[in-house]
Design goal:
This protein is α/β, with parallel strands linked by helices and about 150 residues long. The protein has a single domain, classed as DNA polymerase III subunit chi (Rossmann fold, 3-Layer(aba) Sandwich), CATH 3.40.50. It is about 30% helix and about 25% strand. The chain has four helices and eight strands; from the N terminus they run βαβαβββαβαββ. It has an eight-stranded mixed sheet, sandwiched between helices. Helix 3 links the parallel strand 5 and strand 6. Helix 1 packs across helix 2. The longest helix is centred in the last third of the chain and has 16 residues. The chain is globular and about 35 Å long.
Length: about 150
C-alpha cells in the first residue's frame, strides 16, 4: 500500500510541480497517470512537458492515442490505461480509496489560493484517512516543500 500525498500549491503551478514529481516516478521504475478534470489543463501540461529541457525530457502522451498502454506517463481524464503505479490528480480530480490502495503513490495537487479547491482537498483527505490509507500533507509556503502532517 502506497501513500496519498497532498500538495498545497501556493508558489508553484501544477505544471512546475508535475515536472518535479514525475521524474521521481520514472527513476523508481514506475509508470504514472496524470488525471485531470480540465482537458485544457492537460493540454497545457502536455505542452509544458514537451518544452522542457532536452536533458529532462519526460516521455508521455495524451490519452486517446493508439499507444496509451505503452506510455510511461499518460495524461488523461479516464481510468489508468498504462499500468501506472503512480496517480497524479489535478484540478479537483478525486482520489478513489479503492483505486489508490494498490498504487505506490497518489499525488493530489491543489490550488492553495482557491477556497473551493481547499475544501475539496480537505474532503479527499478525510476520505483517504477514513479508508485507512496513509496520507501526507505537503506545503510550500516556506519556499520549499515541507511535510506538515501525516496520518
Amino acid at each position: 500500500m502506497g501513500v496519498v500525498m497532498f500538495y498545497h500549491l501556493t508558489r508553484s503551478t501544477p505544471e512546475e510541480t508535475a515536472a518535479q514529481l514525475l521524474p521521481r516516478a520514472l527513476q523508481a521504475g514506475w509508470r504514472a497517470m496524470v488525471r485531470g478534470a480540465d482537458p485544457a489543463r492537460l493540454r497545457d501540461l502536455d505542452d509544458a512537458l514537451w518544452r522542457g529541457p532536452d536533458d529532462h525530457f519526460l516521455p508521455h502522451g495524451l490519452e486517446g492515442g493508439p499507444h496509451d498502454a505503452d506510455q510511461p506517463i499518460l495524461l488523461g481524464e479516464g481510468p489508468i490505461r498504462n499500468g501506472a503505479s503512480v496517480l497524479m490528480l489535478l484540478d479537483g480530480a478525486s482520489v478513489d480509496p479503492v483505486e489508490a490502495g494498490p498504487l505506490q503513490r497518489v499525488w493530489v495537487l491543489f490550488d492553495g489560493m482557491d477556497e473551493a479547491a481547499l475544501n475539496h482537498a480537505r474532503g479527499q483527505w478525510k476520505a483517504v484517512v477514513a479508508a485507512g490509507l496513509p496520507a501526507q500533507y505537503w506545503s510550500e509556503e516556506s519556499g520549499r516543500w515541507e511535510k506538515k502532517a501525516e496520518k
